[in-house]
Amino acid sequence: MPELITYEALRPTLTTGDIVTWLGADMLSRAIEHYRPGGSHTSMVVVEHGHVFLVEALAHGPSLRLASARFSNYNGDIFIHRIPTTPSQEECLATNALVFVGEDPGYGFLTLFKLAWGKVRNVMTTPVCSQTAAYFLAEQGLIPPQCNVVSPGELAALLPAPVRLAPYTQMAD
Q1: Could you give the CA distance from residue 171 to residue 173 in angstroms, rounded to a whole number?
Q2: What is residue 86's predicted lDDT score, i.e. its pLDDT?
């Protein structure tokens, strides 16, 4: 089992490009886990001006949110994969992630549905969460390019071993 760490201890060490793998307890998360084990959602950390944000593809479109707000009272397990990056890679990752949010390509509901039954060619027109994170990492040479869309669990398998975030509430801040 991965090392359990508090957000207070982890926060100062987070860097742009770190990947968050979520294992949710809701019905959609359990369905994703059933068809593609290893995770139900993926986010990427972006650290800007001392703030820790998460960039992720969600059903309503791309999202940029404070990590503390997103982690607060999450019903499930959260795993953080520390990605070794250079300052120039972090700058490119942050820029690409913020442009992604600004362009708002929507969400790949059809891709998510197709993933349950097989492989889906990796086209970034309307991406899903893990596809987005994998694309950003591959562009910087941090993981190999992916011909097919990877699920959260498949992406997690390409990354360094994670730490597990201890249950967290913003009230503790």
Answers
A1: 5
A2: 98
